[in-house]
Amino acid sequence: xxxxxxxxxxxxxxxxxxxxxxxxxxxxxxxxxxxxxxxxxxxxxxxxxxxxxxxxxxxxxxxxxxxxxxxxxxxxxxxxxxxxxxxxxxxxxxxxxxxxxxxxxxxxxxxxxxxxxxxxxxxxxxxxxxxxxxxxxxxxxxxxxxxxxxxxxxxxxxxxxxxxxxxxxxxxxxxxxxxxxxxxxxxxxxxxxxxxxxxxxxxxxxxxxxxxxxxxxxxxxxxxxxxxxxxxxxxxxxxxxxxxxxxx
Length: 248
Hints:
The structure is a single chain. Helix content is 72%, strand content 5%. The chain has helices spanning 2-19, 22-34, 40-67, 73-77, 100-124, 128-136, 141-151, 153-169, 172-177, 195-202, 209-247; strands spanning 79-84, 87-92. It has a two-stranded antiparallel ribbon. It is globular, with a radius of gyration of 21 Å.
């Protein structure tokens, strides 16, 4: 989700800060931030009934045919080892569309407005003299944009951390599209499970004290991890400008 969302968010923030005319910046900002107002269950249903079948029929087969010529990719991404009758058998991974890839895309859309909004506000605080100085020294538009990102790198990393915390704690949307298989797989096209989806699926049906204790520990790990992400992100965003300015 981070790999998908961060380039789009930084690109949107740069567009709103440096390229977009004033009459267009408002509606585009509203549309991006409107994504945050959509309930997660709506994202989950869209992912389950629209995105997952589309990935299964068109995208994942195309990715497989396009990457299968690379040595090792077929065995890494498109095969799995299962135990049949006490023996381990390597078989072709069925492409269902309900997998980590689909979950990552859904989460990327959900965290896009958070990272974009914070990144836009951070880039707006870059001093005008910093931008004009790079242009005066002969920098291109892309080079001056790169300097803006470098100047605000601490706060931008904090924005990414906030998006990561949002993605890690999401429950219903990811539960509906990730496949809910209690296995760790190296392939992003395999069904999997997150800590949040595990709790949503199994906590109500836990039948033993050991099972409930294990799920409670998973919840505790998720809580501590989310707290760490949020505290780190706040520290970076609030103090990012002073640290970035000191670096230059």
